[in-house]
Amino acid sequence: TQLLEQSPQFLSIQEGENLTVYCNSSSVFSSLQWYRQEPGEGPVLLVTVVTGGEVKKLKRLTFQFGDARKDSSLHITAAQPGDTGLYLCAGAGNYGQNFVFGPGTRLSVLP
Amino acid sequence: GAGVSQSPSNKVTEKGKDVELRCDPISGHTALYWYRQSLGQGLEFLIYFQGNSAPDKSGLPSDRFSAERTGGSVSTLTIQRTQQEDSAVYLCASSLRRYSAGTSGGAFPSTDTQYFGPGTRLTVL
After folding, report:
1. How far does A102 lie from chain B, in Å, by closest CA?
2. pLDDT tens digit string along B53-67?
3. Which residues on neighbouring strands pair with residue A36, listed in sequence order?
């Protein structure tokens, strides 16, 4: 069974600070996705990474896929209150398995 | 918009009753997924449909849970004899589900984007 762990579980920071959240597994994934979920809504896809070592930037968000494709990080620069939400990572296996989701990091950015 | 819709948005039921949750995927999406999310937790995979068939039912927690999809579109998740531990948000997602050839010759999902509905919050009293 492929499992994903995320850390930290909770994070509360002030507006303007930088932060990094992590997604780790002992399994190798063919691709990994990051989602953000706001209260009362479904998750919304932020990015998909597929190549070991890949780095993708989305405005103030930087996503990195580990060289061994077992882990990933999400770095947010100059966090804003609009970044508040539950950040979920999801990994896809190599043999047609569906995505496995991590438990999420709940981020709160205070104005 | 033409996103994924789910109904009802909220459902309160008594222990032992049956419930049906509905999902309307994005038109043209062949893949449909059901997930369960307990308060403050990540998503627990329940079942996946490709067209009307369900190649992966591995996440259904017990035989009280079943799902069907008709016409390659609408899906219904049914929970029989509900229990308090069934209380959660049930999320549905759909995707185009394009496959890519793997290096070993097998097929695996490409960078499939799942579009989620807003969920149904089920409370079992």
Report:
1. 6
2. 887 888 899 999 999
3. A44, A87
